[in-house]
Design brief:
TIM Barrel; 30% helix; binds zinc ion; 16 strands; six-stranded parallel sheet; three-stranded antiparallel sheet; alpha/beta
Length: 288
């Protein structure tokens, strides 16, 4: 069956060729400014929050410049992040490596607190300091975490082999961000064997640190021009869509496909080409 699957290429909802997602850490007050930009351009994404650090007044000084890193209170979270995914970043922002059972507390208690505040099922994580190993991943699995973001840039538009090692495309301070954005928007989809994904990450205090809010607005404005061919989604929406697509069941001769999931799945059924976009409705068998 795997051979048959390879003849078809999954595409994003509505038959789109590309998806774009963002991931920002630490739940700091400058997130509100980024969210207003994301809403202006119709961009979606995920914010990774420490439930043990709500409502703190903080700042730090780097290169002679002091930057505010204060966080939102628990009461402010639902309104500030309305329409965006909230995921775990650990209760106290500790590295999960070499802290034994405390790692379970860091994740499970963060999930519980964030789920209570948001009324959502929280299943994502961003590794504090980007630190993880196989043991960390096992703890995340046991705590019901489905994906976790690293801090290792790929500079490509591939999906992760392992969603618990989800490497982003780039950080917004990298000079190549706009060039990668252009490649992503202009590359012919035939050249990509998988549905393309651009994954951007960072911390919003960095825009104050480097006084460069203009770079993110220019980038989002550029990407938004291509909205007809880009699915703007949160991290968990990307994860759930790909997981659902992997559950498709094909007939023995490959001419029919059953979608056993509750998700509408789209794929390009033109072998070695593009253009035959097929919509697979939940619970239905579709003849190709
Ligand atoms: Zn962090």
């Amino acid at each position: 069956m795997e051979e048959i699957r390879k003849l078809y290429k999954i595409v994003w909802p509505e038959g789109k060729d590309r998806a774009f997602t963002m991931s920002y850490d630490d739940g700091i007050r400058q997130d509100a400014r980024l969210i207003s930009l994301m809403n202006k351009y119709g961009i979606k994404g995920t914010f990774n929050i420490n439930s043990g650090k709500f409502g703190l007044e903080n700042n730090f000084t780097l290169f002679g410049k002091t930057v505010d890193t204060s966080t939102f209170s628990a009461e402010e979270i639902p309104e500030v992040y309305k329409g965006f995914e909230i995921s775990t970043h650990g209760v106290t922002h500790s590295s999960l490596m070499n802290i034994g059972a405390l790692a379970v507390t860091e994740i499970a208690e963060d999930r519980k607190a964030l789920e209570k505040i948001t009324g959502t099922i929280v299943q994502g994580h961003a590794y504090p300091y980007g630190r993880y190993d196989e043991g960390t991943k096992n703890i995340l699995r046991a705590c019901g975490i489905r994906y976790a973001r690293t801090i290792t840039s790929t500079h490509n538009f591939e999906l992760p082999d392992d969603f618990l090692e989800w490497n982003p495309t780039c950080h917004h301070t990298e000079e190549c961000m706009m060039e990668l954005g252009k490649q992503f928007c202009e590359r012919h989809p035939m050249l990509a064997k998988n549905p393309m994904l651009f994954y951007l990450w960072g911390h919003t205090y960095e825009f104050d640190q480097f006084d460069n809010w203009n770079i993110i607005e220019e980038f989002l404005a550029y990407i938004a021009q291509y909205k007809d061919s880009i699915w703007f989604a949160s991290n968990i929406e990307i994860y759930r869509y790909i997981q659902a697509s992997r559950q498709l069941e094909f007939s023995a001769d490959g001419t029919a496909v059953y979608n056993p999931t509750s998700t509408e799945i789209w794929f390009d059924a033109a072998v070695f080409g593009t253009g035959k976009i097929v919509r697979l409705r939940p619970g239905e068998t579709t003849v190709l």
